[in-house]
Design brief:
The protein is an alpha+beta fold. The protein has 5 helices and 6 strands. The protein has helices at residues 8-13, 28-37, 74-95, 98-102, 106-113; strands at 15-17, 20-23, 41-51, 54-56, 63-64, 122-129. Strands 1, 2, 3, 4, 5 and 6 form a 6-stranded antiparallel β-sheet that branches. Strand 3 and strand 4 form a beta hairpin. Helix 2 packs antiparallel against helix 3. The chain is elongated and about 55 Å long. The two termini are 19 Å apart. The relative contact order is 0.23.
């Protein structure tokens, strides 16, 4: 798990979604910065509503980076991938009505209709890559 290279305080803030780690929307920029600082490329991620017995993933809202370009140094790729994921994440965070997206899932619709808060269950999974050693 490449995420283990992130600072322990950030790992402590993470929530587990299956084998993946997810963070609150407020923590995502710090996680992207921390990954960049330890030379992890940001592959992207997506929001998930995480409950103890199920995860609801609006996968159509992904914030992804492009692949490493031919001739692009690892350092340049790390920097570019962080910028791309950061920009896509900020766009999603500022433009998406997460409650409207949640209504695409009957379980979450039921929660909303019962006036149960769903936003405390909203997290963002991030994926990383490390430089291949040949």
């Amino acid at each position: 798990m490449l995420e283990k290279q992130l600072p322990p305080p950030l790992l402590a803030k993470a929530t587990r979604s299956g084998t993946e780690l997810a963070w609150s929307l407020a923590d995502v920029p710090e996680v992207i910065d921390a990954a960049e600082a330890v030379a992890l490329a940001n592959l992207g991620g997506q929001p998930q509503f995480i409950y103890p017995d199920a995860t609801y993933e609006p996968y159509w809202l992904s914030a992804d980076s492009g692949e490493q370009r031919e001739g692009e140094t690892w350092t340049a790729y790390v920097r570019r991938s962080a910028a791309e994921v950061r920009a896509a994440f900020e766009r999603i965070r500022s433009e998406v009505d997460f409650e409207a997206e949640a209504r695409r899932f009957s379980f979450l619709t039921d929660k909303l209709e019962q006036n149960e808060p769903i936003m405390p269950h909203l997290f963002f999974v991030l994926y990383f890559a490390s430089e291949a050693v040949e």
